[in-house]
Amino acid sequence: MDIIVNSLSHCYGSTEVLRDISLDIPAGRVVCLVGPSGCGKSTLLRFIGGLECPSKGEVLQVGNPPKGSLNPLTFVFQDFALLPWRTVQGNISLVLEDHGIRGAAARDIIGDTLARTKLSDFADALPKQLSGGMKQRVAIARALAVKPAVMLLDEPLSALDAQTRELLMDDLVSLWTRQPFTAVYVTHNLAEAVRLGHKVVVLSRRPGRLREIVEIDTPLADRAAGDAELEKVQKQLWNLMRDEARAADEELVDV
Amino acid sequence: MSDVATQVPARRAVEYRGGGFAPSPRRWVGFMVFAVVILLAEWGTRAGWISPLTLPKPSDVLVTFQDLYATGLLFKHLGPSLSRLFIGALIGVSLGVTVGVLIGLFSYVRSGMVPVVAAIFPIPKIALLPLFVIWFGIGEGSKYALIAFGTFTPTVVATYGAVDNVDRTLIRMGQSFGLPWLSIVRKIILPGAMPGILSGLRISLAIAIILLVAAEMLGAEHGIGAYILEAGSLYDLERLFAGVVILSLLGVLVSAAIGLVENRLLSWRV
Ligand SMILES: Nc1ncnc2c1ncn2[C@@H]1O[C@H](COP(=O)(O)OP(=O)(O)OP(=O)(O)O)[C@@H](O)[C@H]1O
Ligand SMILES: [Mg+2]
């Protein structure tokens, strides 16, 4: 299933947040969204996931989600959004119960997703007993449990320290290599963008417009840290972003 | 050599200054406070610097209490009181939680009910007892109504405040996974509001005990309130105090019961 964003614009009251965004998200690819703070990345992601309606333009699904997908458009939130009163497996079963998946069938799915996110030993732990990195892995396990057609990740690693982030990026790459999924990945971190993205979309400062789309052809599994090609792309992205940030700064001075 | 040794700078442990600001339960302290107060009263009444007209001797109160127990009168009074408390509070709290959740969920209910609740909250419910007697009869009905009405308003206010405070990101999460409306309410909003509802319950139930006594004073044959009223009109201070002690014990028990429920239901809290 592909997603097409069709000349989408949005205003909150008198603030224009997004202007004329057109974008396609092909199946099985990871699209990274980068841009200066407040440019509307999270807002765009909410439109793609159907949590809000844009004032102009539309988001289209092309084709049907694969059979067995319980929740085609699935979010992974920056602040994890785990229910603190449910255990790790309870949090995953939450998203299965309403599809009538209980008992043995649920245990199979939960066991499988926990194994894939290396959490099997923590099935009965409460969120308060877990570290930040583990909580985010639970959130990823929960997202995998509903067999999403498209994963929408809003700065999923921002709340974590550099080492944990590195490890979770490796986890995401190995999850993708084993079974390619489609994803829109919002981030501030250009290193994350060049490590995980097949396509990096740079938005301008508010109102967010498409500034540049950078394709990266190196397969995800082959992207090692210190790869010269990737460094070059990261540098290029950084230059784009720096110009935006500088312009945003000057705008403030003008006011 | 010994000169050099004395010049080694002195070492001492770093001063600890991280304590305090974290009250933790000390079970025996509560009992001690009660024991000291009772012993003081006993000593005073025996020694004579508290006149028997001011305060009965605690040991006499205990004897009265034993009589009450031995004659079976205790349960004759406690039984009806407990059932009134239970039924009245059950009606008030369940209606209150329901209305509170509805106010928390629906704009129209909120706009319609919040002013109504604000209007009836400050009415002293005891003033309405004659009205309830006309509506529900002199029997149990008016007493249930009074207790239910008194527990209803604080429960509503606590509940909709608690629902408002449920983490919005969790509700967003539920929607993003396509959970049906009812599941979001049952599995996210209600458990998330539980801490606030339970702390509201502490207040509601204390109010229920106060109203129970008031209702029983204004027309009941049996019940702790009736017992206290009778003792009071005869200036029988021992019996009056025996009744008051029962009420205090009831309050402590209710509060302890809520504490137990909190420990069970809210163990997930950080
Ligand atoms: N519900 C809302 N009502 C009004 N304004 C909003 C709302 N949500 C976001 N905004 C505004 O829209 C703009 C874009 O917000 P958004 O959260 O999408 O930015 P972002 O790119 O995700 O920023 P960050 O990188 O800091 O997360 C901001 O200026 C914000 O103030
Ligand atoms: Mg954001």
Order of helices and strands of chain A: EEEHEEHHHEHEHEEH
Order of helices and strands of chain B: HHHHHHHHHHH
- How far apart the termini of chain B lie comes to 57 Å
Largest sheet of chain A: 6 strands, mixed
- Write down the overall geometry of chain B: flat
Hetero groups bound? Answer: adenosine-5'-triphosphate, magnesium ion
Oligomer type: heterodimer
Rg from alpha-carbon coordinates of chain B: 26 Å
Q: Helix/strand-derived class of chain B?
A: mainly alpha
Measured on Cα atoms, how large is the radius of gyration of chain A?
19 Å
Characterize the main sheet of chain B. none
Low-confidence stretches of chain A: none
Tally of strands of chain B: 0
Coarse morphology of chain A: globular
- Strand content of chain B is under 5%
How would the blueprint of this fold be written?
The complex is a heterodimer of chains A (255) and B (270).
Chain A (H helix, E strand, L loop, with lengths): L1 E11 L2 E11 L4 E5 L6 H8 L7 E7 L10 E4 L11 H10 L5 H14 L15 H14 L4 E5 L7 H17 L3 E5 L3 H7 L2 E5 L6 E6 L12 H27 L1
Parallel strand pairs in A: 3-7, 3-8, 5-6, 6-7
Antiparallel strand pairs in A: 1-2, 1-4, 8-9
Chain B lengths: L1 H5 L20 H21 L10 H13 L2 H33 L1 H14 L8 H8 L3 H25 L3 H9 L4 H37 L6 H10 L3 H29 L5
Helix pairs in contact in B: 3-11, 4-5, 4-7, 4-9, 6-7, 7-9, 8-9, 9-10, 9-11, 10-11
The complex binds adenosine-5'-triphosphate and magnesium ion.
